[in-house]
Write a structure and sequence with these properties.
alpha+beta; 2,3-Dihydroxybiphenyl 1,2-Dioxygenase, domain 1; four-stranded mixed beta sheet; two-stranded antiparallel ribbon; about 25% helix
Length: about 150
């Protein structure tokens, strides 16, 4: 069944006691423009940051471990909260994140799926993977191994 009213926006809510640190990281270091948002007074604070196109990547634990291996990241101890952000330059994104104190988890690495990925530790327990596309979705979809889960399971 296809929805007649699919979602138009994905909004990921990150609740954190380190609000200023998170805002500096996501808005200033990662360059996500802030849009107007409503809050009352005092400690009631919110920032809605535009992150471009959003997708949801569902993975099995086995695939998450495979990604850790491809990105040269240490294995996780169970589910990890992780964002993956497409950028024009992975190296520049890592440098900008490091300037705000983000610790490197995995250095820039060219992956078998034709991206350059690097991972840093963001605030509030979230890991951030920066990825730079080296070929278009159309080019990638022509290569062996790239298909949808539905087609893979047939």
């Amino acid at each position: 069944m296809t929805m007649t009213n699919p979602p138009r926006q994905l909004r990921l809510i990150i609740e954190t006691d380190a609000f200023d640190e998170a805002l500096t990281f996501y808005r200033d270091a990662l360059g996500m423009p802030e849009q107007p948002a409503f809050a009352t007074e005092g400690d009631d604070r919110v920032a809605i940051l535009h992150a471009g196109l959003a997708t949801i990547e569902l993975t099995t634990p086995e695939h998450a471990r495979a990604i850790d291996q491809v990105e040269a990241a240490p294995p996780s101890d169970g589910p990890v909260l992780r964002l993956a952000l497409e950028v024009d330059s992975t190296q520049e994104a890592v440098e900008e994140a490091a300037a705000t104190g983000a610790a490197s988890i995995a250095p820039a690495t060219e992956t078998p799926f034709r991206t350059i990925n690097a991972r840093v530790q963001g605030p509030a327990g979230w890991q951030v993977t920066f990825f730079q596309e080296l070929e278009s979705l159309q080019e990638r979809s022509q290569r062996e191994g790239f298909t949808t889960d539905e087609q893979r399971r047939r």
